[in-house]
């Protein structure tokens, strides 16, 4: 049986990771054992410099050449590992000559300057792309998404970053905004008839009131744990508020070419009309585990519309998670009008 080239990729990644981990552990163990040996006191100055170079330069470079370079990442991406290496070095070798630590800091200064310069360059690219793609009728989050994807075309962190920026946008800056509409598209709301607002109010109350009690309870065992749990509760409250505000400002837009679905911050998808098999009103029944893997379902609310697709396509879900789906369930305030509008457009496509 022949092995496809794509099947070898995960194996190659695992091998590189194992080699990288072995190299890092070997260097750390070698340096630590050497520092405990009898030759260290007589050569402490030169060995300390050697150890600091290992932790601040050699280990980050190994990470770059074994992993990041294969992913087409810039060398500046390993700068945080240089800082981590400096911290680890200072903790593993606390008796090191303070002058060595100062020398190591001076090694980090030009690296930090280059890193800041690179970050400013990337920021300028993002701003330039944002201004280029922005128009009077464009959605600010769509424009930001395009700008970030142009600046970081292969980064898997961009969807999560856009998700968190969207949260802040809807909670802090979108209160006076009008619902987003597109010329030539018909809008359909999905928040006025749902129980999502009541659900958010109840959940927020529980998270706030019971969170305070839980905070003081956990403080008796661990202050750090108490604050982690409390900050997590605050994050969830902000998430719920942002989701509802996004629902108010982003109706589903149906045009002859596509359907733009931004269901709060739970879902973002642009659906090609040509890929829609059917749009039907439904009485929702629980899906099997197999079907649920390729289906979008809104949180808590019982859907009343089902969109079946001809082939799977990728959507962006909560926290920027990507998922391939072949059907989508939604709740709409007026499911009958939505079904009729979509069915009319689909039929016109078939007839043309």
Give the domain tally: 3
Number of beta strands: 8
Strand % is: 5-15%
Computed CA radius of gyration, to the nearest angstrom: 27 Å
What is the element string, with H for helices and E for strands?
HHHHHHEHHEEEEHEEEH
The low-confidence runs, each spanning 5 or more residues with pLDDT under 50, are 1-9
Structural class: alpha+beta
Distinctive features:
352 residues, alpha+beta, 3 domains, 10 helices, elongated
Description:
The chain folds into 3 domains: 5-122, no CATH class; 187-249; 252-351, no CATH class. The protein is 59% helix and 14% strand. It contains 10 helices and 8 strands. Strands 1, 2, 3, 4, 5, 6, 7 and 8 form an 8-stranded mixed sheet that branches. Strand 2 and strand 3 (258-263) form a beta hairpin. Helix 1 (5-35) runs antiparallel to helix 2 (44-68), helix 3 packs antiparallel against helix 4 and helix 5 (140-151) runs antiparallel to helix 6. The radius of gyration is 27 Å and the shape is elongated. The relative contact order is 0.07.
Write the layout of secondary structure elements.
Layout: H1 5-35, H2 44-68, H3 79-92, H4 98-133, H5 140-151, H6 158-173, E1 186-188, H7 196-219, H8 223-249, E2 252-254, E3 258-263, E4 267-272, E5 276-281, H9 289-292, E6 295-296, E7 305-317, E8 322-330, H10 335-351
Parallel strand pairs: 6-8
Antiparallel strand pairs: 1-2, 2-3, 3-4, 4-7, 5-7, 7-8
Short synopsis of the structure:
By secondary structure, the protein is an alpha+beta fold. Helix content is 59%, strand content 14%.
């Amino acid at each position: 049986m022949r092995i496809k080239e794509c099947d070898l990729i995960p194996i190659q990644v695992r091998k590189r990771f194992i080699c990288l981990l072995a190299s890092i552990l070997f260097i750390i163990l070698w340096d630590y054992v050497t520092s405990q040996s009898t030759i260290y006191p007589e050569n402490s100055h030169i060995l300390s410099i050697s150890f600091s170079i290992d932790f601040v330069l050699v280990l980050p470079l190994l990470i770059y050449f074994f992993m990041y370079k294969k992913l087409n990442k810039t060398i500046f991406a390993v700068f945080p590992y240089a800082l981590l290496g400096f911290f680890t070095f200072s903790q593993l070798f606390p008796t090191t000559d303070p002058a060595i630590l100062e020398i190591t800091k001076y090694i980090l200064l030009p690296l930090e300057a280059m890193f800041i310069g690179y970050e400013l360059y990337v920021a300028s690219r993002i701003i330039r792309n944002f201004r280029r793609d922005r128009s009077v009728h464009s959605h600010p989050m769509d424009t930001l998404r395009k700008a970030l994807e142009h600046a970081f075309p292969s980064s898997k962190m961009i969807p999560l970053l856009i998700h968190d920026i969207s949260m802040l946008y809807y909670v802090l800056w979108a209160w006076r905004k009008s619902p987003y509409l597109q010329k030539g598209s018909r809008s359909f709301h999905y928040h006025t008839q749902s129980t999502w607002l009541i659900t958010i109010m109840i959940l927020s109350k529980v998270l706030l009131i019971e969170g305070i009690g839980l905070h003081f309870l956990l403080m008796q065992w661990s202050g750090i744990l108490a604050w982690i749990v409390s900050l997590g509760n605050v994050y969830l409250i902000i998430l719920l508020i942002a989701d509802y505000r996004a629902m108010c400002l982003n109706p589903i837009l149906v045009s002859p070419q596509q359907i733009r679905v931004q269901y709060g911050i739970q879902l973002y998808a642009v659906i090609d009309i040509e890929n829609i098999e059917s749009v039907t009103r439904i009485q929702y029944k629980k899906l099997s585990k197999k079907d649920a893997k390729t289906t979008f379902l809104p949180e808590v609310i019982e859907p009343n519309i089902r969109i079946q697709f001809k082939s799977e396509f990728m959507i962006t879900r909560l926290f920027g998670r990507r998922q391939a789906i072949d059907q989508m369930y939604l709740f709409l305030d007026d499911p009958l009008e939505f079904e009729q509008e979509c069915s009319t457009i689909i039929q016109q496509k078939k007839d043309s």
